């Protein structure tokens, strides 16, 4: 069990729950979805000046502890959607509520902090910082959130099987090990929601299976909801709930209709 | 015991800056070196200018005026106080006697030049130079070990500490003076002098002087006295009539400051025979004012070097911005605020500047030590590396602020990094 119950003398750094993860999930579920999207519209301006709608999502929700895989082909707006949910991008219209807060309405600096504290993000290319050790990569994620807990950072790396390689830099780790560091970093601040953007895109089949199992297991242990996007049917097959982005995105449907002969 | 860091913002900044400095160690070192040169140069220029001005403007001279031949007061001061330049001429011994007896004059010490020993000036004077004259307010010459003043009737000499150090002359050493103020082996006088005293260091030009009885100057072979207007050469065993005697200058201590102004009126404005250099400090200050443009050019050059150093900080950090855009995007995606990355770059620039400033103290010490050697050898004035000049703390502060300002441009670039566009690697 990964749930970290260490307390500090000044201020509990880690949320301590007397509940098991399953109980916790049930309790949160009774209050509100962890992610609610309403009438989300995102457009971009093409080089020729034409404005194109890439996302138009009337409704989408994710319950606490829920794990959903979102299927989408390349260029379908998967990464844009995750960046919108993470508050890295802002929508043109609509609401994105994470744990009850409409993050698009938050001032940028508050949104940054909110992201650090509530959302874990596993990128397709892992986006580890190469000048830093594995441990420092995890600690950096904590620095911009509630604060660094070195013991918990080490514990996370130990949990993903990198106990002996905490001081290694990303360039000294295999691709699979880098992916695990990225997972540990995503969970460093006890997020309510973990976003994973093609997290196994650079892994072979065996490592993909291991990585998906690990992500799902650790998110489950931490009570974090998981929204994973991928175009890989092998990955999608590992999930009970799979949604197609094109089905929830009206912009994709409109594009498909326009492109139909 | 908690392992939680209490100031994550500062901890994050510290880690980002430390890692960046390490990753760009070469450019960090080169940039810090340019800052070190700039700050060291600025500190040295200001410190040397200030110390030389203080040393030469006579603020610490223990007497008030110099009486000498009609001519330039500046030449008189340079000749008598700093033992530089040639004497503008001589004045009759009678004038010395008159000024000595003036009720407004507390002390009058004669000063006669014309010979040297291995380039060090030999000055003929009286015992008053040791017993009564203060070379700086409250300070009189003191002897090392068993040294003593010369006997006015003997061929005895008292030498300054720098002379002893450079010539190797010790107590009871003997030497022969050479004619003229520059050393010429062919101009050796036959008279032999014995060293009876070595003065303790005074850190003034007097450390470079050999003092002998003034009678010795009068009687040195080949010296011609023209005090009466006619040429006269002293003969061994015979008294020299006062009318024939002459001196290069007279160092004067007045009983009150008004005496100086009164004598200035009498000697300089009404008289035609002599010049009174008074006040000594203002004469040297006017020289420094005339030469001020040299100092201003040096300071301008130092400021330009500071600008170049600031430019090198800006360039070295700015050049890393492209490769670091992804790093900033990742940090922002992890929750770092814009002000965090902005502060990290400004802090990095300030840190490079601070490292440079620390090394700048070594540069400053090196420049000042070198300058001190040259200035002391040439003028006897001693520059103090640890003078405590305010530039020693103002320059580092200014350099760090300039460094921080140089970091603002690349910091703004980091500040405006497009997170989403830079999260994916660019090949």
Structure, explained:
The complex is a heterodimer of chains A (261) and B (427). Chain A has one domain (23-35, 63-244): P-loop containing nucleotide triphosphate hydrolases (Rossmann fold), CATH 3.40.50. In chain A, 37% of the residues lie in helices and 21% in strands. Chain A has helices at residues 21-29, 78-86, 108-118, 134-143, 150-159, 175-186, 205-222, 233-236, 245-248, 250-259; strands at residues 35-45, 51-62, 67-71, 93-98, 101-102, 119-122, 193-197, 225-230, 241-244. In chain A, the strands form two sheets. Chain A has a five-stranded parallel beta sheet, with helices on both faces. In chain A, α4 (134-143) packs across α5 and α5 (150-159) crosses α6. Chain B has two domains: 8-56 and 291-422, no CATH class; 65-278, no CATH class. Helix content of chain B is 51%, strand content 13%. Chain B has helices at 8-23, 25-56, 73-80, 93-101, 128-131, 161-167, 214-219, 257-270, 280-290, 292-318, 321-333, 338-379, 391-406, 408-415, 419-422; strands spanning 65-69, 91-92, 105-117, 120-125, 156-159, 174-175, 178-179, 193-198, 210-213, 246-247, 249-254, 274-277. In chain B, α2 (25-56) runs antiparallel to α13. The interface between A and B is large, with 42 and 32 residues.
Total helix count of chain B?
15
The chain-level mean pLDDT of chain B equals 87
Shape estimate of chain B: elongated
Q: At the third CATH level, what is the topology name of chain A? A: Rossmann fold
Strands in their spatial order, largest beta sheet of chain A: 6-7-8-3-9
Radius of gyration of chain B: 31 Å
- Largest inter-chain interface? A-B, 42 and 32 residues
Ranges of chain A with pLDDT <50 over ≥5 residues? Answer: 1-30
* Major sheet description of chain A: 5 strands, parallel
Which percent band covers the strand fraction of chain A? Answer: 15-25%
Estimate nothing, just give the exact number of structural domains of chain A.
1
Order of helices and strands of chain A: HEEEHEEHEHHHEHEHEHH
Structural class of chain A: alpha/beta
Q: How many E-type strands of chain B?
A: 12
Number of DSSP-assigned strands of chain A: 9
By DSSP (H or I, 4+ residues per run), the number of helices of chain A equals 10
